Amino acid sequence: MSGAATAVTQGVVLHARALRENSRVLELLTGEAGRVAAVVRGKAGSVQPFVLLDLAWRGRGELPTLQVAEQQRVFPLTGRALVCGLYLNELVLRLYPRDAPIPEALPALLTAYARLAARERADVVLRRAEWALLLPIDSGLEHVDAAELDPAAWYRYEPEMGLEPTAPGRAGAIAGEALWALASGQPVPDNHARPARDFMRALIDHHLAGRVLRTRALL
């Protein structure tokens, strides 16, 4: 092993898989380094998903070794909240490349964990988190200004073309009221919950470019 240890940064475990008898490969989302993979040796019981950790690692190449993993906060997710948390972790894994710092991502994920742990409505938490996670990756959503939306109108959004008014009932149409709620971080009205879900799924699928979200089937 070579190379100095990195500075301590906060992060969470998105996924872990076994590597040999007593080691695991961790996929991490960190505040300063973005998505990082690292090896942890031994049991390291606190190094698991839904725990905010202080992290530092040492080594070069694709798999440095985790040197520091100190627990800061646990998000107790069970049942449907746990499934939603696993979905958001996979979404980050599929959407974000490794070693690309995206400072907005970790706060967005931690906020979603906390709200899920507080038993807030899962669909409300997921729509807000999906929007927040797509926003910093050149998805085009940064050009959607809630203040300029007409809640009484209908819109169609194409990532390459942007937002344009459309007629209700057309493929991909979303009510201005629902789009305003998504863009302003407010709960989507119940009568628009399914179209808002489908709108976000279509946008996510565009950016996944064929990669499959396995946990979506569990929602």
Structural commentary:
By secondary structure, this protein is α+β, with helices and mostly antiparallel strands. 31% of the residues lie in helices and 26% in strands. A hairpin with a 3-residue loop joins strand 1 and strand 2. The chain is elongated, with a radius of gyration of 19 Å. 30% of the residues are buried.
Gist of the model:
This protein is of the alpha+beta class and 219 residues long. It is 31% helix and 26% strand.
**How many β-strands, per DSSP?**
8
The largest pleated sheet is described as: 5 strands, antiparallel
**So how many helices?**
5
Mean pLDDT: 90
The H-and-E topology, N to C, reads as: EEEEEHHHEEEHH
Morphology call = elongated
Q: Evaluate the radius of gyration.
A: 19 Å
Taking the alpha carbons of the first and last residues, their distance comes to: 42 Å
Which runs of at least 5 residues are low in confidence (pLDDT < 50)? none
Class based on secondary structure composition and strand pairing: alpha+beta
Features:
single chain, 219 residues, alpha+beta, five-stranded antiparallel sheet, three-stranded antiparallel sheet, 5 helices, 31% helix
